[in-house]
Amino acid sequence: MGKDSRRLYGRALSVLAGGVNSSVRAEPSPYPFFVEKGDGGEIVDVDGNRYTDYVMGYGPLLLGHDLPERVAGAVQSEVARGPMYGAPTEVEVELAEFVAEHVGSVETLRFVNSGTEATVSAVRLARGVTGRDKVVVMQGGYHGAQESTLVEGDAESPEPSTKGVPSSFARETLPVPFNDEGTVERVFEEHGDEIACVLVEPVLGNNGVVHPVEGYHETLRSLCDEHGALLVFDEVITGFRVGGLGCAQSVVGVEPDLTTFGKIVGGGFPVGAIGGSAELVESFTPSGDVFQAGTFSGHPVTMSAGLETLRYAKDEDVYSHVNSLADELRAGMTDVLEDYAPEYTVVGVDSVFKTVFTRETPESLEGACVSGCEQRADCPRYGTCPKDAGDIDDAETERWKRLYWNGMLDEGVFLTPNGFESQFVCYAHDDEDIDETVAAYERVVSSV
Ligand code: PMP
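A: This is the predicted complex of the input protein with 4'-deoxy-4'-aminopyridoxal-5'-phosphate.
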């Protein structure tokens, strides 16, 4: 942070709403840092400060800030041919083939331009093919800035979670607590023939990291089958991050009808996608009758970046590298917490991590899951991780900001300002970054 960021924020405030183009970027107060450039696993601000970056663009940057030569080369040669055409290109087909080959439930895709657009289109598809209107979502889940899911409360009294969403829209959304089989069963008993889909992140990534309890997704799967609803996995965060190229669904072991993707599948460029069986996804226009379109969809630059990123991840064993570094990081952070703040918990899976903390220490937060155990009964720490949004909401947001955001930022470590979002290890990080981060974490935690 420094005078150049402060000056730019001043200018930004007069021409951009809130000074930013995505609300999460306005923190920390009194001004956010403005970025000069990325450099491997680091980010450099306009005042020349360097930070080890675990925000990683909120997830898309699996490889870090420096694109490997083959990715950069593919992107540059696309740009050299012209930015986009409004007509199909080979690279869209190649990326779709790659995704269909690696993700078990996906035969056919439609690419769009953001995770939000993917979930909007998936919900429209589910409504279109079932002829029903209601959508079940998880409390604490996030599916982008879209009308059907910016809803809070419970299935009895859903309310818009922001101004601008009509109450009549919110009434079509049924929020249920994640991991609570009884509630979702009751909601299906009451509304079974009105539910178009259940939309769920296979592992909650926007509300701490919350793993599914054993059997939860199987229950959702059978409720959907029994009642003729679609199961939609929102893999915008987890896709090509958790479970490697098979995505989180390969770990969870349940096949959704539809999957939404975003972030990594575009290699750092704007992207979203909806995938599923050919029969379902062909319900989009022009082959079907659920309208879907987009000027920039399947953008050749994005498609090349996504394709070469995923090919690189496959060829270079990127997932072993990032997952084992994140294991080390979670273990190191857990050791620090055991010494200084045992009421806090480090959660995560594969290359995703997060500290969850609370003053009260509900029983479900005792101990720490460092293994990404997905709450399986054979995990030595089974039963000690957060299980739903309620556990996470008990976390102390203020403490996150003061200690982990400001404290870690002062130490040169960039974490999400928002205490609920996940942090990511990338391929450009190395053992030294992890050691330095754990040492910084210890200094910050011990200074409380
Ligand atoms: N779904 C999930 C699970 C997400 O985490 C996000 C964004 N973080 C979205 C959808 C929306 O994606 P986008 O911001 O690209 O619109």
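The two ends are 23 Å apart (CA to CA). Confidence is low (pLDDT under 50) at residues 367-371.
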